[in-house]
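re: ur question from earlier - yeah i can do the single chain one, its not a big deal. heres the input i used so u can compare w yours
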Amino acid sequence: MTEQLSGTTRTVSVGGVLLGRGSRVTVRPRQSADILDLALDGRTAQVTSVEEDYDGRVLVAVALEGDPGRELGTGAQIGHRFYFTPEELEPLAASAATARPKVLVAGIGNVFLGDDAFGPEVAAALLRRPQPDEVHVTDFGIRGMDLAYALTDGYDAAVLIDAAPRGGAPGTLYVIEPDVPDDAAPEAHGMDPVRVLALARRLGGEPPRTLVIGCEPGAVPTGDSPDLTAGLSESVRPAVDSAVALVEETVAELIDELRQKENTP
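and the output i got, formated as tokens:
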């Protein structure tokens, strides 16, 4: 069994099979593993990332298939993601094929600023619904740096959900493909989609094609000392269900486009 880490694509070769995000494997912990790892022997899992520790050792993070919290694992949440060395994993036959396209769906916004909570509300609604294996839904809140890193972590496309004031009636939904100028200023602690994409580039990666599902807000406190207001306004809350349907439709179209691109000679 050989292993070879590619720092640019974050993959590792195990027995001649290239494993990366989305690859399916069987877990085979070594006999020296702890009792929890041994309890996972024979379980099927999906690779969420290939990483290196401080000593330069290659580790593969996986989320278990059949875990009710698997989406938390694919979203890099602690408790639903497990680390193994490459020799502790057996690639499944399907892993030899090209990995399925991966789409990140990210809710962004501050839940304490009125309608700015639109993104997190839609993400929470999506997480209550079954999603295709190609789709990873995460509520990033106001964690701009985390989102920037996620956008450079091997996704083929991304959909960001956010409040987007564009002059329409409150609750109006938009599908926006943001243009990121070369001179766009990155911002490590903000959640403006253009600046987050600029930050992703500054971190050394090229973000995937990214669309924004935006909602015209009705009430977002502003100013240096905004009043904290939890919960969406009455004019925006009905748009959550419509946004869920729009996100799922948009993601399905993106996956179809990616599959067609893969099958084009």
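The helical segments are 35-39, 70-74, 118-127, 144-150, 193-202, 239-262. not sure if urs matches, ping me
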